[in-house]
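Homework help board

Subject: predicted structure for assignment chain

Our instructor gave us this sequence and asked us to write out the predicted structure in C-alpha cell form, then describe one feature. I got the C-alpha cells but I'm not sure how to describe them. Can anyone check?
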Amino acid sequence: MSIDDWTILLTIKSENQKFAERLTIAIDSKGIKRSPPVICRLFNSKYEGRPISSYTARNWMLGKSFPSQEKIVLLAKLLDTSPEQLRYGRSCEKTLISDLDGAEIEVANVDQQLLKRYLALTAIQRRVVRDVVAEFKATGVV
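My C-alpha cell output:
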C-alpha cells in the first residue's frame, strides 16, 4: 500500500468514527437506549428497503461502517436531527440569533428541538427549568 492509500484509509476511518459520535449524540438526545437491537428495530420499522441487521446498526454505532445517504436521511428523521448533522456534523437548520451581548450565535437543530420542548412545558415547569439552569450557572457548572 502506498502512503496515499493509507491516508485515504485513515480519513475514511476517521469519518466513520465522527459519524458514530454524532449518531450516539443523536440517540442520546432522543432518549433512546444505546443498543444495536433497539436501533435496528426502530430503523426497520420505518425503512421500506431491505432491513438492516443488529450487526449493521452496531457497526454504525462503532464507526466501522457508514450508512448510505438514503439511510442517513431516515436515521435523521427518526432521531429528530438533520441528515447534514449526522453526516457532516453541521445542521442545515441552524438559525442565527443575537444574545444579550450583541454577539451572534448559532442554534443547531437539536437545540431548536429542546427549545420547542421547553416552550411546550407549563409555566411552573418552565420556572423549574430556569431555576435549575440558574443554579448550574451560579455554581460554575455552566
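Reply (TA_rk): Your C-alpha cells look well-formed. For the description, you could write something like this. The first strand starts at residue 95 and ends at 98. That's the kind of observation they're looking for.
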